[in-house]
Task: inverse folding
């Protein structure tokens, strides 16, 4: 993959997909891509793709899922890739040219919650990976996918479940608020705890009200299933995979430089823009040794949903 194809731009999706998610660190980018390939293969495992199928990949980003589908299911597959990011569609198109796959791929700018440019009952399979998480109206997106599928067509998606990160951030806020209000009298105020909260609150909602209004945190895997039922899908299969693993982040620079999702600033940006110099130094002294000792774990929660349009 050519990471230098696009330089940092005003497009938050391209900035994140091609730069900020990897902290612009090529060895780390390779490790992330390996993990993403696992998600994509599980989506394709549930897609029941026939070799001559027409596949629509919603929110295609770099085009990885579509290219992998062609690699796995053959040269007669046709893939339509949609995205709201002009930059990412251009990137995916350039990748298709480079791979000699242009004749099998189409690129359409279209929002997942309507898919207005895609004809009714025109697709055999619709896939999507880490896209509905960012769509406020997930019900509209499932309805649009149902509309464009042929009868008997399949949907197979994977979405991150960020609720626990948000719940943990609410707990941090409550602990800090309790200290500030004196209800933890005797324990004193803990600067480390306050900085942890300020870091996490820049990346995830930290009150129940903010969670309710956050597209990335206001749904669970069961909500996705309920929506699929409500929009008329059948043969619905849902798997929640939770993996607690040693983190693939192996340096402080990547730890502070990588953003967990497109709407989150990196810890580096937070330390530079939200913390004082003294706070940054205190925080780094508190957290860096554990990162460099290789202690961090990552907790990955991914919901896989597949279903059929009757
Ligand atoms: C986290 S990336 C995932 C990219 C790709 N599906 C993958 O698995 O690598 C989210 C993608 O969804 C696109 N996206 C975000 N909101 C969208 C929307 N409302 N409609 C369509 N695409 C959207 C972004 O431009 C980005 O390419």
Result:
């Amino acid at each position: 993959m050519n990471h230098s194809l696009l330089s940092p731009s005003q497009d938050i999706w391209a900035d994140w997909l091609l730069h900020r998610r990897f902290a612009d660190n090529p060895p780390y980018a390779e490790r992330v891509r390996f993990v993403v390939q696992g998600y994509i293969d599980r989506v394709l495992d549930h897609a029941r793709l026939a070799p001559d199928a027409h596949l629509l990949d919603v929110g295609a980003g770099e085009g990885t899922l579509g290219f992998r589908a062609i690699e796995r299911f053959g040269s007669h597959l046709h893939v339509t890739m949609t995205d709201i990011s002009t930059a990412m569609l251009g990137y995916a198109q350039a990748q298709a040219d480079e791979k000699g796959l242009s004749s099998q791929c189409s690129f359409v700018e279209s929002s997942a919650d309507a898919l207005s440019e895609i004809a009714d009952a025109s697709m055999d399979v619709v896939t999507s990976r880490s896209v509905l998480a960012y769509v406020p109206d997930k019900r509209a997106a499932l309805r649009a996918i149902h509309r464009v599928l042929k009868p008997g067509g399949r949907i197979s998606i994977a979405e991150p479940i960020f609720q626990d990160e948000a719940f943990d951030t609410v707990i941090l806020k409550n602990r800090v608020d309790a200290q500030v209000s004196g209800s933890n009298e005797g324990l004193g105020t803990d600067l480390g705890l306050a900085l942890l909260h300020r870091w996490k609150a820049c990346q995830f909602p930290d009150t129940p009200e903010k969670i309710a209004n956050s597209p990335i945190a206001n749904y669970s895997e069961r909500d996705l299933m309920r929506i699929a039922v409500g929009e008329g899908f059948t043969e619905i299969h849902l798997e929640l995979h939770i993996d607690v693993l040693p983190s693939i982040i192996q340096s402080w620079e990547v730890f502070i430089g990588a953003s967990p999702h497109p709407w989150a600033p990196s810890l580096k940006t937070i330390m530079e823009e939200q913390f004082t110099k003294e706070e940054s130094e205190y925080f780094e002294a508190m957290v860096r040794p554990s990162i460099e000792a290789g202690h961090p774990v990552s907790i990955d929660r991914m919901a896989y949903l597949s279903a059929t349009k009757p």
